[in-house]
Amino acid sequence: MDETIAAEGRTLKEAVDQACATLNIESRELEYKLDPEHFRGGAETVRIIAWRRSVPVAKVSSDVEGFLVRLMDFLGIEGRVSAETSAGVLQLTLDSEDEALRDQKGERLIEALRHVVSRHVRTVAPGLRFRFEYEQAKERRESGMIDVAKKLCARVLERRRPITLRPMNSFDRRLVHLEVAEHPELGSCSLGEGAMKRVRIYLIEDESSRDGDVPAAGDRHVPPSAGDAHDLDATRSSAEDGDA
């Protein structure tokens, strides 16, 4: 049982509402019991002992995985589904080469599956953090980002001028750094603080190309561990619109 709190109201509903507000959760995430000590003196109010409902992650993982498999069977989509939990997050991964998921309609179908499964998770395990990953989309994003990085490296080599990209997450920065490392004449560094940083690609021989910017600590050439990938179109826009 998680940490408990006491909540009181003129009615049971008021007590429950107060408990939910204190714990910052919805009523479906709440478990409670009446406080017997409060009623022994003939109290005119209702007092409860409340706590956040515990989530049986292993059971939920199996339930959600089965839910998506049944949904895919219903839609006639072939593929493999896997579920795993880490640090309190349930991640569901769909691995499918089905033709129905390859075009623009397929992208909308993936988003629809993500939405339906997410609602199912909120129903069976309110408050559980959930992530849905379509393996092939991740591979396409990675391939697209690498292509963009190749073009940017070629641009710096051709124009002999540095390029600074818009803020990117660690997954995309890693791909850029790795591509830059393939070019002996080029160097790269990440600038800024926080999860989203800008990547600078420059000529190693031209130290002035960095314009006094200070690289983020530990984020030059060898980037931080991969984070979650974001939409490729946004990534491509960030790269192509970088100042040159």
Brief write-up:
The protein is α+β, with helices and mostly antiparallel strands and 244 residues long. The protein has seven helices and ten strands. Strand 4 and strand 5 (89-95) form a beta hairpin.
Write a structural description.
- The chain has 3 domains: 5-52, no CATH class; 57-127; 139-240, R3H-like domain (Ribosomal Protein S8, Chain: A, domain 1).
- It has 7 helices and 10 strands.
- It has helices spanning 12-23, 36-39, 57-75, 104-124, 135-159, 170-180, 232-240, and strands at 5-9, 30-34, 46-52, 80-86, 89-95, 129-134, 163-164, 186-191, 198-203, 215-220.
- A 4-stranded antiparallel β-sheet has the order 7-9-8-10. The protein has a 3-stranded antiparallel β-sheet with strand order 1-3-2. Strands 4-5-6 form a 3-stranded mixed β-sheet.
- Strand 8 and strand 9 form a beta hairpin.
- The longest helix is centred in the middle third of the chain and has 25 residues, at 135-159.
Features:
244 residues, alpha+beta, 4-stranded antiparallel β-sheet, 3-stranded antiparallel β-sheet
Task: Note the total helix count.
Answer: 7
Q: What structural category characterises the helix and strand content?
A: alpha+beta
User: Helix content range of the residues, please?
Assistant: 40-55%
**Biggest sheet, spatial arrangement of strands:** 7-9-8-10
The quaternary state of the protein chains shown equals single chain
Average pLDDT works out at 75
Topology pattern, helix = H, strand = E: EHEHEHEEHEHEHEEEH
Low-confidence stretches: 207-244
Count of individual beta strands: 10
Shape: elongated
- As for the CATH topology of the largest domain, it is Ribosomal Protein S8, Chain: A, domain 1
The major beta sheet can be summarized as:
4 strands, antiparallel
What's the domain count?
3
CATH superfamily of the largest domain: R3H-like domain
Rg over CA atoms: 25 Å
- What is the CATH class name of the largest domain? Alpha Beta
CATH architecture title of the largest domain: 2-Layer Sandwich
Give the termini distance in whole angstroms.
Answer: 57 Å
Beta percentage is 15-25%
